[in-house]
Amino acid sequence: MTINPARAEQIRTSAEFRAADANCTYVGCASSGAPATSQSSAFELHNLHTALSSGISGAGQLVAVVDSGFRTTHQEFGGKTIYRYGTLPSSDHGTHVASLIAGAQDDRGMHGVAPSAGLHLTAINPAGGTNLNLDNVIGGTLDAASRGAVAQNNSWGFELAASDFASHLQANPGRTVAQGLNALIGNYGAAKWQTYLDALDGFQREGVIVWALSNNEALASGDVMAALPHFDQRLQEAWVAAANGYFEVNAAGEITKAVRLSAPCGLAASFCMAGDGTTSAASATSDTSYSAGTGTSYVAPQIAGTVALLAEAFPDLTPEEWTKRLLASADNSWFSKLGVPVSGTSDFGNGVSHAFSQEWGHGVLDVAAALSPIGNVSYLSGDHVLTSDRTSLNEMTVAPSQSFGNGIERALAGTQVAVFDALNRSYNVEGSQLVQAPSPPMLPDLMQWVAVPPSHALPKPGLLLPNDAYGATAGLSVSADATGIFETSPAPAWHSQSSVLSLVGENVAAISSRELGPFAVTAVGFAGEGTHEEELGSVAGGGINVAIGEATRVSFGASYLDDQESLLGMEPSTAFAWGTGSKVATFHAGLDHQLAPHLGLFGRFEYGTARASGGTAGLIGSISDVDFSAFQVGMRIGNLVKEQDSLSFSVAQPLRIESGSMKLNIPTGRNAAGEIQQRQMAAEVEPTGRELDFGMDYNVPVGEGHLRVGLQYRVDAGHVPNASAAGIAVGYRKTF
After folding, report:
1. How far apart are CA 69 and CA 73, in angstroms?
2. Any idea which residues are catalytic in this one (predicted)?
3. DSSP letters along 154-166, please?
């Protein structure tokens, strides 16, 4: 039985093509007066230039072509790796097809979709003509697979409707697909047809089968060869059927008109896509000749060439995954606008579904979209792309507390972290982009300070209770706030971050103070919310302080904090799961020295260790104990302008990590088996900056209230080098 490799290609006159593009920058474009591509070729491959300019050109990839013949000496194949299976007769059709796949990008004639790809060529019949030599095609298919071809292009077939083949199998129950092909197409023997089907199935382990539909528009169900996976489900793994159309696009690149020029996808709809098969490419007339034509034969090689681009860009994906990307990224946005009825939807997993129609399959080939992330980009916390939990890229960032400064960002800087789109292709994100830069607020601190009285001060000898305690029995008081309870002097509120107790939000504190000889001993226990306002009771702890002296007052002590939500103010995230909370121990020392009746010096230093509790996960393999420090020093002047006013100057360092490290598990990609690859690295987490807060506070009685003015300037704000901030606030408080 004979076949027509050209599939009744419709040859158009030069007048029906656009004028030649002098730049000749896209596939199939012509120069030197030859016909150029039709109006929409640049649309369906609109970002092919982007792939090529970024270095993706099919290098190192091999594309197999089964066709009528090839002129391998044509200039489009110069210097190219070409494997030949059997004898190769010369033919315009095969030469045109092969050049559309891999024609050289050398500023001559045209270039293919994958200009750097190699070719594996097999003739339908080594003796020439259109009689199918099935043995030769089987051998070529097996040989191409053994050489690692990533695609096989088949721009040939038979004028047998897929629906007629389906009817034959239905009328002959128990008959295999191979037996049906033998009965309706060619009497090569059912066993040989089965061998061919097995060869196609085996090829899909290495590459994608691309098959051109018939150009007979009357075949409403498509043709049998392009629709083979509908009958032999083994072939559904990596198979794309190709339809041809004429498309008009507007200035925005949107399809405004679509005219089908071939059989519809029909029974192949779920694994079919369309393209513009009106092209100009190499011909067999001479080594420098080109010809124009249109048909599905010239859509299929555009798809096969795109597979080579995907194989180069995504070598860790399987042929099945390349196929999914092609179909899921096809442009079908114009279906509803042009009234194309949708006949079904393919579910590609992880929320990616794509509608297809009986006429156009999944839509028009879009190279740029196939190479771009598809669906949500996520961090995968696991060992395999199919079983890992997914965290959206938008949700995987970590927000370090002020105490960490730029430490986490610095630890991840320059590190490439693999994230995955919904179809399991990995893309790299620079690690520091996953860190939200700390931006500690200044104005709220200042406003709170000027609006409320000073926080606690350590009780003087003979004074058992802090000023705001609201109940006491035998030296025991209950307070609504433990923050600042161990301060030697009322400190400006903008320095509230200079104590680990700043991590405690709303709380209830039980305070007990006793005089033991010259020493004043104060013990505190508290429980309440953390600064992130989680459920009540998420933070608890206590401490003890010993003080001595009056004019010169020295204090020292220790405290303990069980924080069930954060590590020095930093909350874990799914990707940065360092634990469930932390246990913090700290030592502090303070000094309050009265130089004169209205002149005093004060200072406080704190040093401690925080240990993460709970198991690590995600990017965090382990985290060491974290040491931190804080201090404040200042001078206070009273009765400066009028009686009972007060002016304070101070310098403070908020809580800052002094030492600590993390072991990170950084995903770097995946292999073809879907296993996520990782590398381990150690990183120090202390920041490179050291914030110093220079502040001034003035408090003066005015009428029946107090006027308060606060100013502050921050150097290396948030412990980030070269960052600075300044603020001023004024408040008036009056008691009624």
Report:
1. 12
2. 67, 93, 297
3. E----S-BHHHHH
Within this chain, do residues 345 and 388 fall inside the same structural domain, yes or no?
no
pLDDT score for 710: 84
Both 351 and 393 in one domain: the answer is: no
- From 46, 74, 93, 96, the catalytic residue: 93
Q: Looking at this protein, which amino acid is placed at residue 241?
A: A
Domain that holds residue 416: 378-434
Q: Over the stretch 315-345, which tens digit does the pLDDT of each residue have?
A: 999 999 999 999 999 999 999 999 999 999 9
Q: DSSP letters of 302-358? A: HHHHHHHHHHHH-TTS-HHHHHHHHHHHSB-TTTTTTTPPP-EEEEEETTEEEEEBT
CB atoms within 10 A of CB 704: 8
pLDDT at 478: 67
175 and 91 both lie in a single domain: yes
Longest pairwise C-alpha distance within the chain: 116
Burial, 703: exposed, middle or buried (Cβ in 10 Å; 0-12, 13-18, 19+)? exposed
pLDDT of residue 492: 44
**155 plus 83 within the same structural domain:** yes
pLDDT at 273: 98
Q: Which residue has the higher pLDDT, 564 or 102?
A: 102
The share of the chain scoring above pLDDT 70, in percent, equals 83
The pTM for the full model equals 0.80
Question: With contact defined as beta carbons under 8 Å apart, do 59 and 117 qualify?
Answer: yes
User: Which residue bears the tokens 């009825």?
Assistant: 341
User: Is the separation of the CB atoms in 607 and 625 below 8 Å?
Assistant: no
**pLDDT confidence bin for 271, thresholds 50/70/90:** very high
What type of residue sits at position 564? Answer: Q
Burial code (b: 16+ CB inside 10 Å, e: under 16) for 208-217 equals bbbbbbbbee
- Which residues of 145-197 form beta strands (DSSP E)? 151-154
Q: What is the pLDDT of residues 389-446, one digit of tens each?
A: 998 888 888 888 889 999 999 999 999 999 999 999 999 999 998 888 766 565 555 5
Rounded alpha-carbon distances, angstroms, from residue 258 to 34, 40, 295:
25, 10, 15
Residue 625 lies in a domain: yes
Average pLDDT over residues 159-172: 97
Contact status, residue 75 vs residue 86, Cβ threshold 8 Å: no
CB atoms within 10 A of CB 202: 14
If asked whether residues 388 and 472 sit together in one domain, one would say no
Spatial separation of the C-alpha atoms in residues 208 and 18, rounded to whole Å: 32
Active site residue 93: yes
Q: Tokens for 32, please give them.
A: 């030197």
Do 136 and 246 belong together in one domain? yes
729 in a domain, yes or no? no
User: For the chain, how many structural domains are there in total?
Assistant: 3
Q: How does pLDDT run across 39-89, given as a tens digit for each residue?
A: 344 444 545 665 666 689 999 999 999 999 999 999 999 999 999 999 999
Do 287 and 73 form a contact (C-beta atoms < 8 A)? yes
Residues 48 and 16 in one domain: yes
Given 297, 329, 357, 477, which residue is catalytic?
297
Question: Same structural domain for residues 122 and 175?
Answer: yes
Residue 656 CA: distances (Å) to CA of 235, 450, 566, 571, 653: 61, 25, 15, 16, 8
Task: Give every CB contact of residue 441 below 8 A, 6+ residues apart in sequence.
Answer: none
Catalytic residue status for 67: yes
496 in catalytic set: no
